[in-house]
UniProtKB/TrEMBL annotation, chains A, B:
Superkingdom, taxonomy of origin: Bacteria
Any one GO CC term of the record: cytosol
Gene Ontology biological process terms, A to Z: response to amino acid
Keyword hit for Ribonucleoprotein: no
The protein's name: Lrp/AsnC family transcriptional regulator
Domain HTH asnC-type: start-end pairs: 1-62
Length: 146, 146
DNA sequence: GATGAAACCTAACCTTT
DNA sequence: AAAGGTTAGGTTTCATC
């Protein structure tokens, strides 16, 4: 894993169907040198797979929100995790620096089900209040399944 | 968007580098018929892009932040998208309701590169200021590659 | 769905460090 | 050895019919 590998990964992240020659002309290698590196990255498990990014409207999860969670007193990350994992609409959550205790990303089919899911979070023990922002337009969404 | 399109999407989700002939033999079409459908799915925006899944441990994106972006006057979503897409550390972005104009999720190797990426966002035209929260503990991360 | 030219992938071989 | 370049073949893509 050197710098050239990282640049190859960046190129493939942008276009996983790019030709080896095209990648090579960006990173300064021949097509076969790029192929060898990509094959190695796949064999080593660095590249887990080649996939596509599909319009979420096709899947039907169109409504999305970003929620700051403020708790009373101290709440352990373990407890927050337990509470938030129980809500299927919660797609991402993490404790953060700043005035909020946690940041939560939610997705659902419509506003009504989003509100219901938000209620489940709010009613959890020690949650003082939340501050939500509904996503209007998704601008960037890069795959990240880690 | 019929059932065959959905099966083609499933195939590409599993392997975005699969040949048209290979996909065709699974869904029961000729290679050129599959190519025409894939081209149409891309043109229609159903397929947003071809990308790779990278082992997160390997590329070491351990530092993560949520950033609220506040702009001066009105900024078009298109312009925001153009600016934010150009910063590779931006993993997610969307315009939102509330006082902030957009919410941005960033990931990078360390605090220094996160700060550098944040600078790139801040220097963009019409960005008034930003408010960041560094993620301390990731509590929930569900796969969502749409 | 079929065809043919152009582009691409792939493996073997050679050169360099 | 290890890593890149070059070449030649077979395969795939892609426009056209």
């Amino acid at each position: 894993m050197d710098n050239i590998d990282r640049r190859i990964l960046d190129e493939l992240r942008q276009n996983a169907r790019a030709g080896y020659g095209d990648i090579g002309s960006v990173v300064g290698l021949s097509a076969s040198a790029v192929k060898r590196r990509v094959d190695r990255l796949v064999a080593d498990g660095v590249i887990r797979g080649f996939t596509i990014h599909v319009d979420p409207a096709v899947d039907g999860t169109t409504t999305e929100a970003w929620v700051e969670v403020f708790c009373r007193g101290t709440v352990s990350p373990d407890e927050l995790q337990r509470i938030l994992s129980a809500v299927p609409e919660v797609v991402y959550a993490g404790t953060v620096t700043g005035s909020a205790d946690a940041i939560v990303q939610m997705r659902s089919r419509d506003i009504a089900s989003l509100e219901a899911a938000l209620e489940k979070v709010r009613l959890a023990a020690n949650v003082d209040h939340t501050r939500s922002a509904i996503v209007l337009t998704r601008l960037v969404q890069r795959a990240h399944e880690d």
